[in-house]
Specification:
Shape: globular
Number of helices: 16
CATH superfamily of the largest domain: Amidase signature (AS) domain
CATH class of the largest domain: Alpha Beta
CATH architecture of the largest domain: Alpha-Beta Complex
CATH topology of the largest domain: Amidase signature (AS) enzymes
Radius of gyration: 21 Å
């Protein structure tokens, strides 16, 4: 593997600024990597390689004229963008057949901020239909495979991002997360992913769109092969854009200033909603032990409300309201759900069956409104409990999933794994997904690190320490150079 494909975006930017390599060289080697792996993965669904090459040439020309200190932080560094986020000149269908011809006329604010910081998009990546399922399969682009074995799922809905970064084709990318859609694919493909604090990054320029409190539940954030890129990217992405009313200014801390001896690491083992596979359980324990050896104070705590994580998520999501799934599937007009379900059973619907079933479940939820209201109240109680427990010096270690990624086609197995991620969206807590090596099936292991609202720097600091201790991203053997 070309050594440039192993480096962080920050390191690549340094090499370009200092003249040790050219932006065009960095962009070209990532393009070649995508051309090699993408036929197996179907992760990048529309490329802009020629435009990226031209932008790299312009970046090199600017680098020859301007002092290095005046260049933006990710000057000349390639990246990828989830297709549901508008990238000018690229499709913005969100995997929806009725939007297949829509091309973004302007960049979404987070995309524009990345480009202003010098990043060069190579293309857009696959997602599940309307980003509503923890996979990356739709009727517009088809199915994406896992970077370590395409027979397994890549997670989702930012599955294309996770797969192409995990396969070495991009140093970092932009994803969205309303129930685990950054963290699940980061886990599945062995890379880092950060779901920011609620309201930190605007969600403008995405489809589907959100309103009210859902704007804060839906997080836009980075996926990266190296942890050191997470905070610089988050600082670039953060801040109000004047459109997303849920986005507010939040003062971010500095991971470099975090001392492990001052951090409390809370492990809530035994209080999770589903049994955890032994390898993931051991991986979480190993992470806790390693942090303890480095000086962190590790505490085991009982948090019984965590057992109801899935129900709490549904209760608070229902309370927040928003566009029904069948309306989002119709690009603003409700689809005839019964007819589409029947068509999907025989393979003739333009919609994927799992997302149609979610729409049906949304209707059935109304029959249990009082029960979900009780779970919403439990969620507020848990939010207060975690706030008191963690304060501003504590992090929570949580399983990434019940098991390593399921095989393609096992959609319900993928849904079960989201129970381990979705709770933190409705509690608006920052969470970083951390890779912890490769398991016995050749698929990645990992752990989630959560903190109280606004303490994104704590979870990222722990991710950086765990990367030093466990090695972080491991390039897939599947795509090793011969």
């Amino acid at each position: 593997m070309n050594p440039l494909l192993r480096k962080s975006g920050s390191e690549l930017a340094r090499l370009i600024r200092e003249g040790e390599c050219r932006a065009l060289e960095v962009v070209e080697c990532h393009i070649k990597r995508i051309e090699r792996v993408n036929p197996r993965l179907n992760a990048v669904v529309r490329e802009r390689f020629d435009a990226a090459r031209q932008e790299a040439v312009e970046a090199d020309r600017l680098g020859e004229m301007a002092p290095a200190a005046d260049l933006p932080p990710f000057h000349g560094v390639p990246c990828t963008i989830k297709e549901s986020c508008a990238l000018r000149g690229m499709p913005n269908s969100s995997g929806l057949v009725s939007r297949a011809g829509i091309v973004a006329e302007e960049d979404a604010p987070p995309v524009a901020r990345l480009r202003a910081a010098g990043a060069i998009p190579l293309g857009v990546t696959n997602t599940s239909e309307i980003t509503a399922w923890p996979g990356a399969n739709n009727r517009v682009y088809g199915r994406t495979g896992n970077a370590y074995d395409p027979a397994y799922q890549p997670g989702g809905s930012s599955g294309g991002e996770g797969a192409i970064i995990g396969a070495g084709g991009s140093p970092f990318g932009l994803g969205t997360d309303i129930g685990g859609s950054i963290r699940v694919p980061s886990f599945a493909n062995g890379v880092f992913g950060h779901k920011p604090s609620g309201g930190l990054v605007p969600g403008t320029g995405q489809y589907p769109t959100y309103s009210g409190r859902l704007q804060r539940f839906n997080a836009t954030g980075p996926l990266a092969r190296r942890a050191e890129d997470l905070m610089p990217l988050l600082r670039i992405l953060a801040g109000p854009d004047g459109v997303d009313q849920g986005c507010t200014a939040i003062q971010l801390g500095d991971p470099a200033g975090v001392k492990l001896e001052s951090i409390r690491v809370i492990v809530a083992e035994g209080n999770v909603p589903r049994p955890i596979g032994p390898e993931l359980r051991v991986a979480q324990q190993n992470a806790a032990y390693a942090l303890a050896r480095r000086g962190a104070r590790v505490e085991m705590r009982s948090l019984p409300r965590l057992r109801s994580a899935g129900e709490i998520y549904l209760g608070l999501m229902r309370e927040a309201g928003g566009m029904p799934i069948e309306t989002a599937l119709g690009n603003g007009e409700p689809i005839p759900l019964g007819r589409e379900l029947a068509r999907a059973m025989v393979g003739s619907s333009p919609h994927t069956l799992p997302v149609l079933l979610l729409a049906l479940f949304g209707r059935l939820e109304a029959l249990a409104a009082k029960r979900f209201a009780r779970y919403a109240e439990m969620g507020r109680e848990l939010e207060a409990e975690l706030g008191d427990l963690l304060g501003d010096d504590g992090v929570l270690l949580c399983p990434s999933a019940r098991s390593t990624p399921p095989r393609q086609g096992r959609e319900l197995a993928a849904l079960v794994n989201v129970v381990f991620t979705s709770l933190f969206n409705v509690l608006e807590m920052p969470v970083t997904q951390v890779p912890l090596g490769i398991g016995s099936r050749g698929l990645p292991l990992g752990v989630q690190v959560a903190a109280t609202h606004g303490n994104d720097h704590l979870t990222i600091a722990i991710a950086m320490e765990l990367e030093r201790l466990f090695g972080g991203w491991t390039p897939p053997a599947l795509f090793a150079e011969s």
